[in-house]
Amino acid sequence: MAQKRILTGDRPTGKLHLGHYVGSLQNRVKLQDQYDTFILIADIQALTTHFEHPELIKQSIYEVAIDNLAVGLDPNKVKWVWQSHVPAIAELTIFYSMLVSVNSLRHNPTIKTEAANYGYDDMTYGFLGYPVSQSADITFLNADLVPVGEDQLPHMEVTRKIVRRFNEMYAPDNPVLVEPKTMLSTCSRLMGLDGNAKMGKSLGNAIYLSDSAETVASKVKSAITDPSRISLKDPGHPDICVVNKYHQIFNTAEHANVCEMCKNAQIGCVACKKNLAAALNNLLDPIRERRAYYENHRNEVKEIIESGTALANQIGNETVRKVKDAMHLSL
Ligand code: TRP
Predict the structure, then answer these.
(1) Could you tell me the domains of the chain?
(2) Cα separation, 171 vs 307, whole angstroms
(3) Ligand 1 nearest atom to the CA of residue 10, by list position
């Protein structure tokens, strides 16, 4: 039986960090053996917020691709697709824009939150409409499954609605578009070591997959711990300590022990942080090694992106042909 197809995407607006690792990259590595996996490097979507800095986007296309390869995604299995080089996505976006009301986009909770975060009081047409373009991302490839975090659920609903409307209206007897299912990631949010609910580039609290071992150690050193614990002799409260939460995620084997020692004042925060930094660096070392390889073989990265994009174009052109047929747009 043919493998089911997965499509997911990254906005190339900077390097990826541990939050991305926990929320999606780790999962992608597991899925690659079971599914026909495509990863979209969504540079057009990145433009919706970073249109004033296209040079940053260009640079980040490599960063994001290398981060993905470095975590262990296998270029013989996974395909990377460069969004702006797939005209089918742009064409489908136009057709789909007829099927989505402006009000439904205005009320989309993720659009609302992001617009508020970016301080848009008069958002662009492109930004408001990016869920429509995202629907094209997913459907041009006939993706069956889309692994995403919770914030993307409203966009998945837009996609599914478009597919249903399109098929009902234009292809009632023989559906053209595939209705995708959401694969919700179990851990979609990693808190920051500064106590912020989220790790994020713009929050200034990110540990990047590309950080050196020294940088990781110094970032962990400045983490917030239990504020009521002033000296080593004070018993700690691991349940309210961010460093402890990180042990739970990244140092699972020692977590229970770290908790006990903290509660019994047998380990101080400095040593506990050192342990955590060591665990993180253990995780990151093989990633660093693969990264070094791809950084020295950028041509290989370019070829990987080009060949994935070529395959995507073949599939996309076929989808556009079917869509145009169904819409009476072909002779
Ligand atoms: N919106 C996604 C994000 O911000 C990125 C993305 C673009 C995407 N196109 C997609 C995700 C298609 C899943 C499917 O993370």
Answers:
(1) 5-190+298-326 (3.40.50.620), 211-291 (1.10.240.10)
(2) 32
(3) 5
State residue 229's pLDDT score.
Answer: 87
The answer to whether the beta carbons of residues 141 and 80 sit under 8 Å apart is no
Ligand 1 pocket, Cβ-based, cut-off 6 angstroms? 7-9, 11, 40, 42, 45, 134, 137-138, 146, 148, 152
Asked if pLDDT for residue 291 goes beyond 90, the answer is yes
Does position 170 have pLDDT exceeding 90, yes or no?
A: yes
Q: How far apart are CA 70 and CA 314, in angstroms?
A: 27
Tokens for 27? 């999962």
**Residues 110/148, Cβ–Cβ less than 8 Å:** no
- Report residue 146: phi and psi, to 5°: -130, 105
Q: Sort 314 into a burial class: Cβ within 10 Å, 0-12 / 13-18 / 19+.
A: exposed
* Residue owning the nearest CA to atom 6 of ligand 1: 9
CA of 154 from ligand 1 middle (Å) equals 12
Q: Is the pLDDT of residue 1 over 80?
A: no
Model pLDDT, residue 188: 65
Instruction: Tell me if 61 sits within 8 A of 43, measured CB to CB.
Output: yes
Span 201-246, pLDDT tens digits: 888 899 999 999 999 999 999 998 888 888 888 899 999 999 999 9
CA distance 59 to 13: 9
Whether pLDDT at 187 is above 80: no
pLDDT of residue 227: 86
Q: Whose CA is nearest to atom 15 of ligand 1?
A: 10
